[in-house]
């Protein structure tokens, strides 16, 4: 969720990439749990919350709460709680983490995403593979891959830009994680029908591997990376480095 960019670059120990993988695994377990609870036809909650928009809103709130817990947990504070290869690349571009640690972070995030989906499958069983859940896979909506790319690019650029901007303000810096989580909830509620709402290559691949559905996978690998790098580069050019980090 890349909510702690205001940390000076420092040596990252071997445990921190592993923590990143674990955080994303927990996030994916939560994502599938909420999807099963709200979208599976046998779930009583699905009948109570009849409106698709309302169901997405509840899922969004649940995922936002999960993100806040992970971001502000001791492990999240230690690793930075990126949980996203695109965020890791953007923060490395700003010098907020050692470049030598980027490959380990990204590898752990991809592994964590896949393991989290697998773990949820073991817990919830066949419900995870049901067509209404489909391993929480992200695929373009009826407007196609172009619209999905645009949505993913815009969301990630706004989210990274907002978090970086918040990190520069002393009053807002501690609340950057809340801002990231709030945007996540909004995106899930409003944008999910367009792109499936990924923001994260590792999150998308983790679901796609088990669902066997790699539809327009290029969208979810390229748009989040480009969106977050654009936000990072814009901030880097507009503000001196000392104003970006605390």
Brief rundown of the structure:
The protein is an all-alpha fold and 246 residues long.
Keywords, separated by commas or semicolons:
globular, 12 helices, Glycerol uptake facilitator protein, 246 residues, mainly alpha
Describe the structure.
- With 246 residues, this protein is mainly α.
- The protein has one domain: Glycerol uptake facilitator protein, CATH 1.20.1080.
- Helix content is 69%, strand content 0%.
- It has twelve helices and no strands.
- The longest helix has 25 residues, at 15-39.
- The two termini are 19 Å apart.
List the helices and strands and how they pair.
Layout: H1 15-39, H2 44-48, H3 52-71, H4 74-79, H5 85-93, H6 102-124, H7 144-168, H8 176-190, H9 192-195, H10 201-211, H11 217-238, H12 241-244
The class by helix and strand makeup works out as mainly alpha
CATH architecture: Up-down Bundle
Radius of gyration: 17 Å
Class, according to the CATH hierarchy?
A: Mainly Alpha
H/E series: HHHHHHHHHHHH
Tertiary shape: globular
If you consult CATH, what is the topology? Glycerol uptake facilitator protein
Helix content: 55-70%
User: Major sheet: size, sense and barrel closure?
Assistant: none
What fraction strand? under 5%
Could you give the count of β-strands?
0
Poorly predicted tracts of residues: 6-12
End-to-end CA span: 19 Å
Overall tally of structural domains: 1
Number of helices: 12
The average pLDDT is: 91
Can you tell me the CATH superfamily? Glycerol uptake facilitator protein
């Amino acid at each position: 969720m890349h909510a702690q960019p205001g940390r000076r670059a420092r040596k990252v120990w071997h445990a921190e990439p592993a923590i990143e993988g674990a955080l994303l695994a927990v996030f994916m377990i939560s994502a599938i749990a909420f999807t099963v609870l709200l979208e599976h036809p046998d779930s009583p909650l699905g009948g109570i919350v009849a409106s698709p928009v309302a169901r997405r809103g509840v899922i969004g709130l649940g995922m936002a709460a999960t993100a806040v817990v992970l971001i502000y947990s001791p492990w999240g504070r230690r690793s930075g709680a990126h949980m996203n290869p695109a965020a890791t690349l953007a923060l490395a571009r700003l010098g907020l983490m050692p470049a030598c640690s980027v490959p380990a972070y990204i590898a752990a995030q991809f592994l964590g995403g896949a393991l989290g989906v697998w773990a949820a499958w073991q817990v919830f069983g066949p419900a995870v593979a049901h067509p209404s859940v489909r391993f929480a896979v992200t695929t373009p909506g009826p407007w196609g891959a172009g619209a999905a790319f645009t949505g993913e690019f815009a969301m990630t650029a706004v989210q990274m830009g907002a978090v970086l901007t918040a990190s520069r303000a002393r009053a807002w810096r501690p609340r950057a994680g809340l801002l990231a989580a709030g945007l996540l909830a909004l995106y899930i509620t409003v944008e999910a029908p367009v792109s499936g709402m990924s923001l994260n290559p590792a999150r998308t691949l983790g679901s796609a591997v088990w669902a066997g559905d790699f539809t327009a996978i290029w969208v979810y690998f390229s748009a989040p990376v480009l969106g977050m790098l654009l936000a990072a580069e814009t901030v880097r050019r507009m503000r001196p480095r000392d104003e970006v980090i605390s």
